[in-house]
Amino acid sequence: MVTTPKPVTDIDLLLADMREARQFMVEHTDEKVKPLKEELDRIGKAITGFEAGLKELRRERLARMTDDGRIRVPSTRLAGMDFWELGVLEQMLLGRQRYGKSHHDKLLAEIHAARSQLQGYLDTDAILRWEDGAIRRRDIMFPNGAQAAATRQFKNSLAEWRTALIQQSVKALDSTTAGSGDELVPTFESAELWMDVNLETLVLPVLQQATMPTNPYDLPAQFGDTNWYPVDENVQVTTTTPGTAKATLTAYGIKTGIAFSDELNEDAIIQMVPELRANLTRNAAEVIDDVLLNADTTTSNGINSDGAAITKSSAGKAQWLLGFDGLVHAAIVDNSANQSINKSAVVDADIYNRLGTKLGRFFVPRRRGEVVYITDVQTATRSLSIAEFEDASAAGTRSTLSSGEILNVYGKPLIQSEQMRLADTDGKVTDAGNATDTGRILALNTTQWRVGFRRQITMETDREPGKSQTTLYVSMRIALTERTGTRSTQTHTAIAYNILNVTA
Fold first, then answer.
1. Where are the domains of the chain?
2. Position 24 pLDDT exceeds 90
3. Which of 58, 76, 90, 364 pairs with 397 at a CA distance of 20 to 30 A?
4. How far lies 297's CA from each of 6, 290, 451, 486, in Å?
């Protein structure tokens, strides 16, 4: 019988080298023979190589334990958690422990050990793997390239995080000052959560984002046109002083809180944190897209609450009063005379074309993906049956009858967002319920909007002993402005409303 030899692995080779070095030293010790310097050098090199090999194997093991670049705890009861989840769990336990309600010294020690373990792997290679993994996840979520502009913005955002992380990583490795580089882990925590939120959002990635070093923060607007004149020999040409303007980003804070009772034990909290992360990621993405689309500082008869008055304490509605007016408001209120279309008919290809006409010169992008359509889910679904999209003889292999999706309309990506709600026949959402549910389609040139973040998503806990509970707070400070500075005359954003039969 022929026996198949067991394949030799890298760890087998490393252990063999170690056994050989150990055997050599044992033999010389037994014989009381002092090794030569050359022999000691050879053994030293072998041990150094062994340590380097083990380190590389640990890196490979970590790579297998990661999910497309995510660095996670590979074992123990904290297995699967990343830096952010470890931080949340630690803050929740410390909050309870500060008031003597319960003691979690053992679990806190495990969290510290797990974080130290992961921090040891947080080098340039791991950061690059994390970036590649995030890009792959986005390609999986949006495989058809319809969100080209959003993907480009996402990659730009990733590149900024990667550069900052690598700089801190190098500083942590190279610095001789104790404590230097401590910012790396919390920065990586923020980057992990922020990338997850960006993967979930649909509207935010298509808009250009700006870091706000101050609040408010002035952005330079486009220069005005210059005048051109014929040139005569030896005659000074007439110059033009271009008009200048600025757009101001003013950030407003928005926060949510989730309370947990003291009855939760250690294991329950551990299992709950990953689910909490998933919910917070989804909720944060939803509220960001919601305020960018629907924010309205009008407390009475607003575009989202027509027929009622809302306040900053109105559950499920308070986010609209954040402090700025969103994309829908710009077209349906600020410049409704020129930038809104009352369709009062079923959806067809012509309405998309008419919206392009409203945008005028802004409908012709400098780069693919700068102009997008955003619509509610029902209108997007009904758009699938538009003859020009559905007919294979007209649309070819991209016909909606076979593909089940609209890649683009007139070369412009179509984004369907759950935060774009069905409206009444006047284009506003009636607070008590629409008399008639109708669809809306928003068209915009994304280069004319800027989103700013004075503070990206942050997390903190607060112990409330009187209630026997710990509350986890998640907050951000966000800003939105359009670049022309005059919403009443803007022509880069338009809307069609009162689109009928989208629910039939």
1. 11-65, 83-174+181-200, 246-500
2. no
3. 364
4. 71, 14, 17, 17
